[in-house]
Automatic annotation (TrEMBL):
Entries under PANTHER family matching the protein: UNCHARACTERIZED PROTEIN YGJP (PTHR30399), UTP PYROPHOSPHATASE (PTHR30399:SF1)
Source species taxonomy: Bacteria, Pseudomonadati, Pseudomonadota, Gammaproteobacteria, Vibrionales
A Pfam family the protein falls into: YgjP-like
Record Gene3D superfamilies: Metalloproteases ('zincins'), catalytic domain
Protein name, entry field: WLM domain protein
Domain YgjP-like metallopeptidase, residue spans: 38-249
Source organism of this protein record: Vibrio quintilis
């Protein structure tokens, strides 16, 4: 195993060779809180990004040694995520495809009924889409109907969960505004004014995962960063957030595929 580097501008990116593969990773440097143990943390994300969090004054050699010690683990984690991604394909919106809602799987069924109004409903383990006419736009119409159904459900479920969680978020005054907005890489965000944006695809996940994202964004109203204080605040309202986040991350590619 060897290591090569490429540091352009502020992006600190390196790679190492494991077997016959070059593995690239990004180093994110953070201030080191006084009195806390110095550590270098390595995270492999489901999208196959490898991020190394290190103290801002950490030596390059120390970072390299930490990565090399976990090179096999990094390689194995990447292989597992890549194997999983092989089964994630873009949806074609045809009968038989798998859809998700609140953590449960549903089989998509598309039927034609010329006397009916186009609609979507859940029925005995199926997501039933009714079109009043099959034509060359069948898949596009199905996709539009399914997307609209998810957005409508998301609006309702997110309102319910936000109302249920607000009593725990004692630092929030009033009811924050939120909107449902499709995003490709984020489950949610919080503006500097305290308004939330939530991804409609999140409604495909279990309620615990929805609660995690909402609480995460509510914590940003008090701490608009990912400081130690932020994580302590989140842990106070959801002690098992790491487990829930891991569950959501593990299904992200399936939930976000369209």
């Amino acid at each position: 195993m060897t290591s090569v580097s490429s540091n352009e501008g502020k992006l600190e990116e390196y790679s190492f060779i494991y077997g016959d593969e070059a593995v690239t990773y990004e180093v994110v440097r953070k201030p080191h809180p006084e009195g806390k143990k110095r550590k270098i943390a390595i995270k492999v994300h489901p999208n196959c990004e490898v991020i190394v969090n290190a103290p801002e004054d950490a030596e390059r050699g120390d970072i390299h040694d930490a990565v090399m010690k976990r090179a096999r683990w990094i390689y194995d984690a990447l292989k597992e995520f890549r194997d999983r991604l092989q089964y994630v394909q873009s949806k074609e919106y045809v009968s038989g495809e798998m859809q998700f809602y609140l953590g449960r799987r549903y089989v998509l069924k598309v039927v034609e009924d010329r006397d009916a109004i186009a609609n979507v409903k859940m029925e005995r383990g199926k997501l039933l889409v009714t079109l009043n006419r099959f034509n060359e736009d069948k898949q596009a119409l199905t996709k539009a109907l399914v997307s609209g159904w998810y957005s409508m459900r998301a609006e309702r479920i997110f309102h319910e969960r936000l109302a249920a969680l607000l009593p725990q978020a004692t630092w929030v005054t009033g009811i924050p505004g939120f909107r449902v907005l499709p995003m490709t890489k984020q489950w949610g965000s919080c503006s500097t004014k305290g308004n939330l944006m939530l991804n409609p695809h999140l409604v495909k996940a279990p309620k615990a995962c929805i609660d995690y994202v909402i609480l995460h964004e509510l914590c940003h109203i008090a701490e608009y960063n990912h400081s130690d204080k932020f994580w302590r605040l989140l842990t106070g309202v959801m002690p098992n957030w790491k487990e829930v986040k891991s569950r959501l991350d593990g299904m992200a590619e399936l939930y976000l595929s369209e």
